[in-house]
Design goal:
The strands form four sheets. The protein has a five-stranded parallel β-sheet with strand order 4-7-10-1-11, sandwiched between helices. A two-stranded antiparallel ribbon has the order 2-3. About 5% of the residues have low confidence. It has about 375 residues and is an alpha/beta fold. Helix 11 crosses helix 13, helix 12 packs across helix 13 and helix 12 runs antiparallel to helix 15. Helices cover about 45% and strands about 15% of the residues. The two termini are about 35 Å apart. The longest helix has 17 residues. The chain has two domains: about 160 residues, Rossmann fold, CATH 3.40.50; about 110 residues, Helicase, Ruva Protein, domain 3.
Length: about 375
């Protein structure tokens, strides 16, 4: 039996900076809510998603749990873990790589959410749950290629779990709950059909990828892929130092992200940008805030800066713009920069005590955005 070759290094991917940024920011904070990558075939979409999984650190899990329950977060435990260790018994702990789950387009609802054995529950009084894709993906990466070809109801289920971080299965008055917090990565080729606007809006971030046109970069892509195919182990070894640096940077940002603060001016700036484009609802505002905090943490800062908001806006807004004959919302980054400068001018430097959001307001946001659980 042949050994599967190592994953292509994330840091060896040429170009596609927005795609890589969106993936890294979701890795730093899973609460952002996933990323949709749209582009033609052969642009590195699946390669980047798999490479990201190899970058992320090992995690502590309850050894006998099929849900990768976090031993340090009893409040998030699955029903099985709570039954076994809810009385204070220390659970057995082991470390493992995060999971990378590839969801097939043909996946059914039961395959995704899992199933309850109703007959056994009625006859023996036992709650038996067969884990599904959401259970396997908890605290890992759930990758959906050609997400636009997946049944809309299944996409809804995935997005619900990505947003809530929990999966609840109910059948005949019997229920089972387990954590389902994961990085959702959906990829698609727009030429094969688009997602409904309602589903597009529920992906936190979205990026468009295109084949690289610059001749020198195309040459580098070919050279690297030939080297990888010739000797994958040697190629990965050559990129090991760069991979380790990025992996450590992501790990540090994960620890820092919950400490990143924001000001009332930051909140006003976000609200000004989304209202100017007539973005429906408030999901986009929250996504921008969470993404900006993750980017600030990635840059080693403990407070949001305007450049964090700008990048978050670029990743969170384009797929939410209204399209069609009656849509008048258009995004010009020059106009965005102008509005951001205007907000900064209106608020000025001010007194730091006036600028920082009150503890009550930050706590209110944190209630909507549960504490980070890798």
């Amino acid at each position: 039996m042949s050994r599967r070759p190592p994953v292509y290094p994330f840091t060896a991917i040429v170009g596609q900076e927005r795609m890589k940024a969106a993936l890294i920011l979701n890795a730093i904070d899973m609460r952002i809510g996933g990323v949709l990558i749209r582009g033609e075939r052969g642009t590195g979409k699946s390669t980047a998603a798999r490479a990201l999984a190899a970058l992320l650190p090992e995690i502590d899990v309850i050894a006998d749990s099929p849900f990768s329950d976090d031993p340090a977060q009893p409040s998030s435990w699955s029903d099985i873990a709570k039954e076994r260790y809810g009385d204070g018994t220390p659970p057995p702990v082991t470390r493992r790589r995060i999971s990378f789950i590839d969801l097939p387009v043909s996946a059914t609802e039961d395959r995704v959410v899992g199933t309850l054995d109703i007959e056994r529950a009625i006859q023996a009084g036992e709650k038996k749950f067969d884990p599904g894709v959401l259970a396997n993906a908890n605290r890992g990466i759930l990758y959906v290629d050609e997400v636009n070809l997946l049944d809309d109801h299944v996409v809804d289920l995935l997005l619900d779990s990505a947003a809530m971080g929990v999966n609840v299965v109910e059948r005949e008055g019997i229920s089972f709950t387990h954590p389902a917090r994961f990085i959702l990565v959906g990829t698609m080729n727009p030429e094969e059909g688009d997602l409904r606007p309602q589903l597009l809006d529920r992906f936190a971030l979205s990026v468009e990828v295109h084949g690289i046109a610059e001749a020198k970069e195309r040459m580098i892509i070919v050279e690297r892929h030939i080297a990888y195919e010739t000797d994958a182990d040697a190629f990965r070894e050559a990129w090991a130092d760069a991979e380790e640096v990025l992996s450590d940077r992501i790990a540090s940002a994960r620890e820092r992200v919950d400490a990143v603060t924001y000001s009332r001016r930051d909140l006003y700036m976000i609200a000004t940008l989304t209202s100017a484009l007539k973005i429906d609802g408030h999901r986009a505002d929250l996504v921008i805030l969470k993404t900006a905090r993750a980017h600030a943490a990635y840059q080693g800062r403990t407070a949001i800066a305007p450049e964090d908001i700008r990048l978050a806006f670029e990743l969170a807004i384009p797929h939410r713009l209204k399209r069609g004959p009656f849509a008048d919302a258009q995004m010009s980054m020059a106009e965005v920069d102008k509005q951001m400068q205007q907000v900064q001018s209106e608020w000025g430097e001010g007194d730091e005590a006036d600028q920082r959001a009150s503890e009550g307001e930050q706590d209110a946001v944190k209630k909507k955005v549960p504490q980070q659980q890798p």
